[in-house]
Amino acid sequence: MMRAIFVVALITLGIFPAQAAAQARPNVVLIMADDLGYGDLSCYGSDTIATPVLDQLASEGTRLTSFYAGCTVCTPSRVALLTGTYPARLGGRGGVVGYGIKPANGLAPEVLTIGELFRSAGYATGLCGKWHLGDAPSMLPMSQGFDTAFFITKSNNQTKQLYRNEQLVADPFDNRRLTEQFTAEAVRFIEANRKQPFFLYLPFTAPHFPAEAHPDWKGKSRLGAYGDVVEELDFRIGQILQTLKARELDEKTIVVFTSDNGPEPGQKQWAQAKPFRGLKWSALEGGNRVPCLIRWPGVIPAGRDCDEITAAIDILPTLAHACEIDLTDTPSRLKLDGVNVWNTLINSPDNKHARKDLLYWHGWGVPQAVRVDNWKLYLDRVKEISGSEQGPVLINLAEDPAEQTDVSGKHPERVQAMKALALEQVADIEAHAIPLGGPGQEDEPVGKRGLWLK
After folding, report:
1. Pick the catalytic residue: 128, 132, 208, 321?
2. Residues 312 and 376 occupy one common structural domain
3. Is residue 96 a contact partner of residue 105, using CB atoms and an 8 Å limit?
4. Are residues 162 and 297 in the same domain?
5. How far apart are CA 42 and CA 139, in angstroms?
6. pLDDT tens, the chain, 454 aa long
7. Residue 71 among the catalytic residues
8. Of 21, 67, 70, 118, which residue has the fewest beta carbons closer than 10 angstroms?
9. Catalytic one among 74, 128, 292, 306?
10. Do 299 and 361 fall into the same domain?
11. Is there a single domain that holds both residue 51 and residue 177?
12. Which domain holds residue 41?
């Protein structure tokens, strides 16, 4: 008993990794929705979509309220999540595979992914969902760290083919049943690997357009097919959590839920990013501030909200720390932009939050803004931001979450300091960038800079 109390005390102080209290390293289930807005869950304020499972997950873990996707569109957002790196550092100059990026191009095979990291540490690794990081064989999930994969190569409006590893299993797939199928495959993966550590990545296609309700959910929500799709997604995540519980794995598993970016413009009549403005592709808050819930019973505090700046690029180093995976000896051309925020997640009393600033990227790869604490500085002409055509615009997000009022004139020294910080970081990215994988990328220049980032 005294030893247990001692270990818990060390964990609380951040001296030991949290899993020192466990018999073995924790499993990880990393879930990502597609185009889900900040305000689309009832635990984030929706009054039209019911998400009881994710609400329960929030009550059992920590709800992050200043969490940012890696970019505002699918492909670069996934690059960020899977590598811990700003996409521009890995050749991401905008667009997505199949729209702005040729299918033969994608995440360079030599870049270390989170799948490769966990597999090298002895974890069974699986993917169920949307890949969207390149169609060439060397860029597919099986070549990028995943033992098994049940997936579509691009978004559900770009392809009709569903694969299990190298085998084509449906052409066309039934878009209405993808969430059900990905969930069933995820449950099978958990069952098959329950006696060893596993890392499961679940990038669902829901609620990406076209939102088509499963027959059992059609008309069930108060928000048309979009709401039906989100409510089914919530139920399916419940099936995964129930599997963990039935196999006595819930207390041995870190569960993360987030979204790849904000609402798709074509779905803005249903999807919500309230109280923020902006949509997918945009560097406004609504474009890439997204829900994020993290649960590890007995380790991550339950029912807690955290408003510290955190980002998808922080997931890799943070999970690596929690699972005792050493990043220092990993051979890679990867330079992490993500930081380890584990002490923040466990609410260590000695916590000094590791992230103080963050760059924002437009969907076409332009660095458009930087955030430091509660201040956001726009460094590009942005049509939704009044005054940005004349110079940098400074926003106080704590007082102005809708980004309506420029206060740059009141804080000129802050503007200059934030601009200098952004210039330094962008210059480092440009100096240490590698091209996308695939043909015709080697001599491509780095992406454009924001108009005022000079």
Report:
1. 132
2. no
3. no
4. yes
5. 37
6. 333 333 344 344 444 444 344 347 999 999 999 999 999 999 999 999 999 999 999 999 999 999 999 999 999 999 999 999 999 999 988 899 999 999 999 999 999 999 999 999 999 999 999 999 999 999 999 999 999 999 999 999 999 999 999 999 999 999 999 999 999 999 999 999 999 999 999 999 999 999 999 999 999 999 999 999 999 999 999 999 999 999 999 999 999 999 999 999 999 999 999 999 999 999 999 999 999 999 999 999 999 999 999 999 999 999 999 999 998 866 555 679 999 999 999 999 887 999 999 999 999 999 999 999 999 999 999 999 999 999 999 999 999 999 999 999 999 999 999 999 999 999 999 999 999 999 987 666 567 899 999 8
7. no
8. 21
9. 74
10. no
11. yes
12. 24-345
Residues 314 and 170 in one domain: yes
Rounded CA separation 49/41 (Å): 6
Do 383 and 414 share a domain, yes or no? yes
| Number of compact structural domains in the chain | 2
Omega of the bond leading into 215 within 30 degrees of 0 (cis): no
Using CA atoms, how far apart are residues 185 and 97, in angstroms rounded to an integer?
25
Last residue within a domain, chosen from 345, 379, 409 = 345
Listed in order, strand segments (DSSP E) in 208-328 are 253-259, 292-295, 304-306, 310-311
At 308 the three-state DSSP class reads coil
Residue 438 lies in a domain: no
Cα Rg of the chain (Å, integer):
21
**15 domain-assigned:** no
Show which of 345, 377, 400 is a domain's final residue.
Answer: 345
* 365 and 243 together in one domain: no
